[in-house]
Structure formats: structure tokens, C-alpha cells
Amino acid sequence: MAVAHQGKIVLYSYWRSSCSWRVRIALNLKEIPYDIKPVSLIKAGGEHHSNEYREINPMEQLPALHIDGCTLVESLSIMQYLEETRLQRPLLPSDVVKRAKVREICEVIVSGIQPLQNLSVLIHVGEEKKDAWAKHWITRGFRAVEKLLGSSAGKYCAGDEITLADCCLVPQVFNARRFHVDLRPFPIILRIDRDLERHPAFVAAHPSNQPDCPPDTK
Amino acid sequence: MAVAHQGKIVLYSYWRSSCSWRVRIALNLKEIPYDIKPVSLIKAGGEHHSNEYREINPMEQLPALHIDGCTLVESLSIMQYLEETRLQRPLLPSDVVKRAKVREICEVIVSGIQPLQNLSVLIHVGEEKKDAWAKHWITRGFRAVEKLLGSSAGKYCAGDEITLADCCLVPQVFNARRFHVDLRPFPIILRIDRDLERHPAFVAAHPSNQPDCPPDTK
């Protein structure tokens, strides 16, 4: 893992990290060229816990984005920075209430679901209980997301344009499937996920299309 | 618990909920008048789990804000709505990188710490293990916050103006004390918390000054 150089946009990413994936989608949607520096959450006890990476992201989590001469962490903060500095292909509506509704869905996923089922927490929960634990919190969160989408969704999470909410939703659906969550009670989530699975920006951001995806899982 | 009426700004709040507290601080800093509808996290197994409140916030969490004819949930999304619609007393810097740094600190707290130590998760962790669990995740998060503050802080979390990061930090320090986290390794966090503890907007938002604070804990 070499440290990024100024000038180039570099995303510290792990193929299966849903938080890295959110940012990959946003970068792709805005057609911002970037390089990927893979940081393995598995190798050598996790490269994200190395002294070198801790200097980049003190939370020892992915992603981090090197851009405009600085290093940014926390996926939702990074995506809002992209939104405020790269105005092409807006990922937040212009209407203030709709913006709030998009951020609301983002936060339910980013703070209400993902942190409870991420790797470091599951290690603490223990091998025996971890699947039931992850399933419980994802199901609780998706129940809320489905309800919110009932009033906000059009073709996508908030109306007919792709927003930050969609960037957060798709990776979370992938995680839900990994933990065998029953998704049948969430028809709107399933429909949006299906509609986006062939979108080029989402395809390019998918774990299976990352340079660090192990060949045997592709 | 009666449902809020259009026109008035109403915050569904619980005195000790750190997420409600963040929004109370932001409302106070911007001098936005609001009424409080207390929702007890304790009474009758938790009023936030009632059918009535689930219609207001499908995540069954506090806070919710009734404002401008709609109901918003998720504290960080609410605070950003206030920031975008009530321009007085800005709580985000105008510089885009500084805005990202503020949101970064917010997210570390809002998604990296609080969700792991909130009531519903601690119930699942179990009585015996819950204190050690909360202490672990708060300490991990504060280590990252302290490091981020090392480069962003002035008098407050991001420079010399109070921002959304301060609205998130102060309630989290209170929670850290509840769980007996050793705060000595976090001198910047402690200094900022101390500086803000007498600020009128923070005093008025404090749990002990809420209408639903039990008299014997004041």
C-alpha cells in the first residue's frame, strides 16, 4: 500500500467494502477519473489497521479519498464534498425538502444499518451470533427505508433521478443478501436495486469489477 | 404523545437522547423557536415503538422535527435542512474543504460511535456486557475524533466558529461520561466540551434543562 500523490484523485478502497462502493458509484456517476489504492480488510489482520493507513484515516476504516491536495474520510462526507465541488450530474435534488429526504435515507443506511453489521463489530459479536445479529439490524433498517421510500421514490429512491440515497442503497442490498436477509417484504428496495444493477456507473463500482477482487469470487 | 400541528416547529425529543440533543443545540444556536413533544424511550417499553410514533419516524428513534409542513428524521439530515433553510448563524463553514472536515467529524460520531452505544443496541448486547461494549466503541471513536481535531480545531471543533461538529460532540462526551470512558487521552475533546458547557444554546439544550427530565436527576 503506497501513499497517494498530490494531483491525482485516489480512492483507498476495498472491493467488498460497502462504504468504498458508495463513493465509487458517486465518482462514476459524476464521471470523475480516479485511481484505486486497494487496502485489504483481510490481509495481515487488516491493512486498515496499519500505522500507515491510520495516518490516512484515524477511524481505520475505508474509504479515504485523496483529492484537491487533501485527504477526506467518511463516505457521506466525501460524497457531499464531490457534490459541492463537482457540479456535473447532481446527486442531491435542488429542492430543500427533497434534499432532506435524500439525506434521511442516506443516514438510515449510513448510521442506522451499516455500522451495526460491519466487520469490526461482527468480530466483537462473535462467530456464533454474527449472522443473526447482522440480519436483525439490516431487517430493522430496511423496514424503515422501505417506509420512507413509500413516499419519496419514483424510478429511484427520491423521484426519477439517481441521488446519494441510491449510492447508499445498492451496496446495502448486496450486504443484506450476503447475510441472507429475506428481502421479499421490501418490494420498492428490490425494484430500485434491480433497475440500477445494469447502470454503467453501478456496474463499474460493483465489487466483482474491482482490481482487488479475488479471481475466484468473480 | 399528541401529533404535532402544521405551522409550529415541533421537536419530538427525549431529554437524554443524544441525537435529540444535537438538534436542540442547532435550533438554539440559530434562535429558531420550537416546542418540544417529549417521547419517552423508557415509559411503557418505549413510546418510540408505538404505532403512532412509528408513523412519524419509521426507524422508531428520536428525534423527529415537524417543520415547514413536513416531518424530518435523522439528526444530521435535520441539522443540514436547518442550515439550508435558516441562513442565520451558519453551522457549516463556507469553504468546501472545511465543510468536508466538519461533516467528517459529524459522521465519525453520528455513524461511527453513537449507533453502537445506543439503547436498542445495548439491549441486544445484554446487561452484563453492555458497559464494556459502549466503552470500547466510544474510546475507539474518540481516538479518531481527537486525531481529526488535531488538524481542524481552533477554539471549537473546526476553527473558531461553532459548527455542526460541536453540536454532535458535546452530547457524545456526555454519553462517554455515563459509560465511564477515560477521557484523559482526549485533551482537545475535553477542552472544547468545557468551553461549550456554559454557552447559552448548549445550556438550554442540556438534558437537565428539558421539560421531560425527571425531577430527581436535575
From TrEMBL, chains A, B:
GO terms for cellular component: mitochondrion. The keyword Glycoprotein does not apply. GO terms for molecular function: glutathione transferase activity; maleylacetoacetate isomerase activity. CDD domains: GST_C_Zeta, GST_N_Zeta. Residues 17-85 form the GST N-terminal domain. GO terms for biological process: glutathione metabolic process; L-phenylalanine catabolic process; L-tyrosine catabolic process. Keywords: Cytoplasm, Isomerase, Phenylalanine catabolism, Transferase, Tyrosine catabolism. The keyword Cytoplasm applies. Pathway: Amino-acid degradation; L-phenylalanine degradation; acetoacetate and fumarate from L-phenylalanine: step 5/6. Belongs to the GST superfamily. Zeta family. It catalyses: 4-maleylacetoacetate = 4-fumarylacetoacetate; RX + glutathione = an S-substituted glutathione + a halide anion + H(+). Its cofactor is glutathione. PANTHER family: MALEYLACETOACETATE ISOMERASE. It is found in: Cytoplasm. This is GST N-terminal domain-containing protein.
